[in-house]
Amino acid sequence: MRHVLPRLAGLRPKRILYPCLATIGVAIYLFPIYWMLISGFKNSAEIFANPPTFVPRDPNLEAFEFVFVHENIARYLRNSLIIAIPVMALTLILGSMGAYAMSRIRSRIVDFALIVVLMLQVFPDALVATPVFIVFQTLGILNTFLAVILATTSKLLAFALVILRPMFRQVPLELEEASFVDGCSQFQAFLRIALPIMRVPLLVVGAIVFVQAYGQFVYPLTLMNQQSLQPGTVGIYGFVGSEHADWHRVMAFSSIYVLPILVLFLLLQKKIVAGLTAGALK
Amino acid sequence: MARTRSPLLYVFLAVPVAYLLAFIGFPIVFNVTMSFQEVTIGNLAMFFRPFVGLDNYREVIADPTFRKVLINSLIFVFANVVGQISIGLCVALFFAENFAGAHYLRGLLLSAWMLPGLVVGALWKWMYATDYGVANYVLAKLRIVNGPVHWLSDPAMGLTAVNIAHIWYIMPFSMILIAAGLTTIPQEQYEAAALDGAGAVRRFRHVTLPALSPTLLAVACLVTIYSMRAFDMIVSLTHGGPLDSTNVLPLLSYQFSFEQFQFGVGAAIGTFAFILVIVVALVYVRTLNKEVSL
Lengths: 282, 294
What we know:
By secondary structure, chain A is mainly alpha-helical. Helix content of chain A is 76%, strand content 0%. Chain A has 13 helices and no strands.
């Protein structure tokens, strides 16, 4: 017992001071998110109050009601999901196929393919949007969800391949070889052995891809001009346009819109962080 | 091992690569081709159009707005690389102390990066509001500023405001990557340096920095690539204004194409941005290859 006390004293800065500092620092850093979430609960007078109130004086749901009744947020949310879910599915299918092949083929073709993928990943989508617009116009698929889904998948597929490739390498070859002896084809080995082992990485990549597709802006803005098809990002953009926006309503809209993202992130935080670090630098 | 060379694997590799070539590779070639052509609304859908040589490029280079926007882009990228790496490194070093809750709190920062760029822009526009924005209130309370700062309406302040918002938005991602790099430095190196009598500062300079420099270079490349993509946030925060003081190359290109319908000029501006990201991407791919071979 006597030995414990001095040791504790020696560790005190780490045990107490550092967690406190870190908590305060993170709270300050994430203050903008707090500010977004509480602004929606203010009314139109309180939103312009000077000094601003850091806790809503009279929390009410007027702004949330407004965005549901007058701004059609439900339709925007639905459109965002109609885009994000197929993008996620398509990206995971193509991404796991490609990453599996890259982890199994031993040839310089893989290095070459990987460089092509890495290079195609870097182009700003605002610049790719113009030619894609022209091509899709020629194909006659402007103003369809299909157009936005195809274009958004291209943006996220490269990212998925880069992150999934090192993970698929961890599937032991011996397992597959044993299944070949049992008469499995390569496709069955992929479906029955590699994919089940990869379910956690696929979940993480799926979550990140979903979040990115859900927040996609340039392609719907460019490829669709019918408001009834637009996702939430374009909805918010139209809403912010004017100089004197109704900020409590914009923030209520934004809060509802990002809520699924924040919930998904808090649930999968640890795995998302691990997945990102595995892919971007290795 | 012959089994693992099933032709199916090549199909699996070819499909996603072909997809990327079709939806990104071909559009880029198409765009570069357009930059040498006279493009009008009438011939927009054709691949073969009147060839005009470098006319679009001459027009772009002669445009004072383009020069201003090119400089803005370079400042924006530079400020983000310096800001995100220096802040990200400090934050990563702090969390590397492994105190209770360090991993969780560090990960929590990433929630900023998860938000859609458009929402981040709207949120900061609201916080930057001159008279009732929370940024000016806090700065005045802390006596950092005397009068309200015109963050988004003063052309001299606009780019700074955009830089702060974008560093806030992407820094957690850079920090997480730097933190991952820190964990790969062997602990023995620190112990050896400490035995040699090196203090914290010298340990940082002679152990941490050299071991971390490949990671930092890779992160710098990624930050550049990410910053060149910052379209969504800038569009909702400032839309490039006031007076193009916060405009950047992708946004200017988009404005020429979709607001003025000068697709050839927009494509030529795009080429400048392409060259920049391709150079950076080549450096990035090389640093990755080095890390693999080490």
